[in-house]
Amino acid sequence: MEIKQFVFNPFGVNCYILSNSKGEAILIDPSVSNAREQAALTDYLKSENLKVVRVLNTHLHLDHVLGNAFAERTFGIKAEAHKDDTFLLDAQKEQSQMFGLPCNDLAPALGNYLNDGDIVEIAEIRLQVIHVAGHSPGGLAFFCENPGKVNGQDNVPPLLFPGDIIFAGSRGRSDLYGGDEFALVSGIKSKLLTLPAETVVFPGHGPSTTIGNEKMWY
């Protein structure tokens, strides 16, 4: 597996591309907000001869879906996320006004709903879907238990892509509409902190961390 990380849009969203040796790619949180960022994304895919076959959203807050429409037009793939966040797609204009941003490219409807325990799989990449509400009702984390060789390194520990559920040294906000602090903390404790301590966490914003490092905060 190869992992490529981009940081896009004014909110600094981490967009991840996971690819296999067959040239297939999973795009997590397309979040491009302008032509320069769109070109950076497509230029990388072209340079590596990659075809996007799945588009996943960890959740549907505005900053994480800014590139959904672009991804659908460009790759012909509809995004997938949890059904409990779909109301946020209907509130994109309101979210844009809240943050003083233009809303010129609304994210379209999802192509598929993902639920807790589902598996997203292509050759060499297997992601388990973990639902943790609290930052948003439909927050998802994607767990890769056996990544194998990653970016040329062997014996890589498990990987977790939790969106805005958990960050290095903190967790996601729960004061936005649909947020729930109790659900967020209890979900982190029961579903994420029980993963192997060596699991490398690639959050929706900021630097990577490990599950072991984050346990000290709980």
Helix-strand blueprint:
Blueprint: E1 2-8, E2 13-19, E3 24-28, H1 35-47, E4 51-56, H2 62-65, H3 68-75, E5 79-81, H4 92-99, E6 112-113, E7 119-122, E8 125-131, E9 140-144, E10 159-163, E11 166-167, E12 170-171, H5 181-192, E13 200-203, E14 209-210, H6 211-214
> Major sheet: order of its strands?
1-2-3-4-5-6
- Shape by Cα distribution: globular
- Number of DSSP helices? 6
Q: Give the distance, in angstroms, between the N- and C-terminal Cα atoms.
A: 32 Å
CATH architecture: 4-Layer Sandwich
Number of strands: 14
Could you say what the CATH topology is called?
A: Metallo-beta-lactamase, Chain A
Largest sheet: 6 strands, mixed
Helix content: 10-25%
Specify the structural class: alpha/beta
Tell me what you see in this structure.
The structure is a single chain. With 218 residues, the protein is an alpha/beta fold. The chain has one domain: Ribonuclease Z/Hydroxyacylglutathione hydrolase-like (Metallo-beta-lactamase, Chain A), CATH 3.60.15. Helices cover 22% and strands 28% of the residues. The chain has helices spanning 35-47, 62-65, 68-75, 92-99, 181-192, 211-214, and strands spanning 2-8, 13-19, 24-28, 51-56, 79-81, 112-113, 119-122, 125-131, 140-144, 159-163, 166-167, 170-171, 200-203, 209-210. The strands form 3 sheets. It has a 6-stranded mixed beta sheet. The chain has a 6-stranded mixed beta sheet with strand order 7-8-9-10-13-14. It is globular, with a radius of gyration of 16 Å. The model has no long low-confidence stretch (mean pLDDT 96).
